[in-house]
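Proteins fold reproducibly. Look at a concrete instance:
___
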Amino acid sequence: MAGTLGDVFDADGVVWTPISPGLAKVRRLIAALLNTVGVVVFSVLAVLFTPWLWIGSALLVATFAWEWWLIGRQVGAWGYAERADDLMIRHGVMFRALVVVPYGRMQFVDVQAGPIDRLFDVAHVQLHTASAGTDARIPGLNAQEAARLRDRLASRGEARLAGL
């Protein structure tokens, strides 16, 4: 169907590179830890004070099941594509977004990874441009891909900037 809103997010001839499934593992581990703490707190309070607090534990378990599913969908929606003059990043399932960053607008590229990220070999690439509103982020790349992308984007940005 031509002219649909979906066309805005699907550029012709673009090959999207997915992010690492390791990001889902990281997010699910964090969700599991937080929900476990909540369930333990509600359970202890239910034993000590009132059985009605078991409802809180049950709600947290249901919330965790929903988070598990949602995290998989969110991570699967991320992708990026390197084109000749720009980098495209898309994400979102319900609220979709497509960011196009021209290489010539990039000022610097950050790579970040916290302790849990490093445990699962995951890093995040942050692109900074002249305008803070056009900064872009690609989460959940494996460390080697993040380093490769950082170097490639930096060299492409430098080459495009030199032509100004």
Notes: The chain is about 50% helix and 25% strand. Residues 22-74 form one domain.
